[in-house]
Specification:
Layout: E1 3-8, H1 15-24, E2 30-36, H2 47-65, E3 68-74, H3 78-85, E4 89-94, H4 97-113, E5 118-123, H5 133-141, H6 152-161
Parallel strand pairs: 1-2, 1-4, 2-3, 4-5
Length: 164
């Protein structure tokens, strides 16, 4: 069984993330969505809220793709998380060339830590490349419409969070 790990903070999950998840399901038998706790980033949503949002969106994808999808919060090294869940593939989404430079460094470090775990990059679809959770939160905070960038349930959660 081929197990993939798609890590991120998912604060919140966006349509870009969902696009990567949908395509990653074609590569693996089981996909673990690793939701990073990462207190240092100061997430808008709690870990429980982020996990719930990811689980809700992934339930639909699991049925549509016939792939086992599991959501797994983690706070350790990515490579240790991959080992913990039995992943032999780490899936990373890329939006732009700037993402690649950072990701390239991470792959090199992860290869030194465990050369048996392979990293696969999936480019975001062209209409999803500008979507970033950080920008979605900023738009929502300033009263803009984030409906084109996030699932409906996430749009509602952002509206509630910012009192709209």
């Amino acid at each position: 069984m081929r197990i993939g790990l798609y890590p991120g903070t998912f604060d919140p999950i966006t349509l870009g993330h969902i696009d990567i998840i949908r395509r990653a399901c074609r590569l693996v038998d089981r996909l673990v969505i690793g939701v990073a706790i990462n207190h240092g980033k100061g997430p808008l949503f709690s870990i429980d809220q982020r996990v719930a949002m990811v689980e809700a969106e992934c339930a639909r994808l699991a049925k549509a793709t016939d792939t086992g999808i599991v959501v797994h919060p983690f706070e350790n090294l990515l490579i240790d998380c991959a080992r913990d869940v039995g992943a032999d593939i780490i899936v990373r989404g890329l939006r732009a060339v700037a993402d690649f430079e950072y990701e390239f460094q991470m792959v090199g470090m992860n290869r030194k830590l465990d050369p048996d775990i392979v990293t696969v990059f999936l480019m975001a679809e062209a209409d999803r490349q500008a979507i970033a959770s950080r920008l979605v939160k900023e738009i929502a905070r300033l009263g803009g419409d984030v409906a084109p960038f996030v699932p409906a349930a996430v749009h509602q959660a952002l509206s509630k969070k910012f009192g709209r």
